[in-house]
Amino acid sequence: MELLQLYYFKTVAQYEHITKAAKELSIAQPSLSQTISRLEKELGVPLFDRSGRKIKLNQYGRIFLHKVEQALLTLEEGKREINDMIHLEHTYITLAVMQTPIIPDLLREFRLDHPYVRFRVKQPSHHKTLEQLESGDIDLSISASTFKNPNIDWVKLLEDEIVLVVPIGHRLANHPYVKLNELNNEPFILRSHGVFRNLCDRFFRQANYLPDVAFEVDDPLSIRGLVKAGLGITFFSTLTLRTLKDPTLVPIRIDEPKCSRSIGLSWNKERYHSPIAITFRQFVIDYFSKLTSSKD
Predict the structure, then answer these.
(1) Are 116 and 91 in contact (CB under 8 A)?
(2) Which chain positions lie within coiled-coil regions (predicted)?
(3) Which of 24, 184, 208, 268 has the most CB atoms less than 10 A away?
(4) Within this chain, do residues 197 and 136 fall inside the same structural domain, yes or no?
């Protein structure tokens, strides 16, 4: 028994007229008659009383029609529930993001035009981010990481320069540039672990410089406080400094080695992405493009 047979039967029962039902269904009358005959043969009873060209629903037909209407209604409700679920799920965008204060502004600007969208934002490790991109648990990743997976697409958003940050009044505060290997006896305030700490350690290795790490702190506010107190110097990204308006902290560009990181947007091209996730993906690309233009 096919769903189409049930739908055709319901229409014929409604009109009790093959020709009118065929016209309503936009099919040939002989095809409709054959469909009804096959259904009756499968059920083992006639569903209509026939008298010449006239047909009338009989007692078997009335019983079957009641059940068919219930079945079709249940199926239609199921379709609506699934459709509602799809639309509900697709108002959510799930992100894995790096630690940067620019993310809230990015999300706020997108919601100005899309107020119904909700975000689920995570800050997983590099390994966990890759796992969740592969599984489809996250739609997009904004980070300084690339992923060795042919299914993961990546587009560069910007080149984020890393600068040295010292307190106002520091002996280096008036220097436009510094070399890392010239920072003898300067105590550093660094993160204890993570992607940014690994990046800073790489810069030290490139400069063949062993830093004096006085503080290992993961809270950005504590790092700023320690620097402002004159207890050490640290690294900040220029992306972070865009939102950090503090005249007591002085950024200094690093001449050697080149200190920067590539920030990119990643997604799994083999996974389904909702229209709103695709819209947000392009928005992110455009948003960072404007940042780069304003910087230039």
Answers:
(1) yes
(2) none
(3) 268
(4) no
Domain containing 131 equals 92-156+262-295
CA distance 48 to 70: 20
* Residue in 160, 217, 207 with CA at minimum distance from that of residue 187: 217
HSE, CB side, 13 Å, CA atoms: give it for residue 159: 4
User: For the chain, what is the domain count?
Assistant: 3
Radius of gyration in angstroms for the set of CA atoms belonging to the chain, rounded to a whole number = 33
The amino acid that residue 44 corresponds to is: G
Domain check: are 64 and 105 in the same one? Answer: no
> Is residue 223 a contact partner of residue 196, using CB atoms and an 8 Å limit?
no
Q: Which amino acid is at 196?
A: F
Please state, as a whole number, how many other Cβ atoms lie within 10 Å of the Cβ of residue 80: 10
Whether residue 266 sits in one domain with residue 202: no
pLDDT (tens digit, 9 = 90+) per residue, 136-189? 889 999 998 888 899 999 999 999 999 999 999 999 999 999 999 889 889 999
Helices (H), 125-274: 126-135, 195-206, 220-228, 238-241
110 and 78 in one domain?
no
**Residue 128's CB: how many other CB atoms inside 10 A?**
14
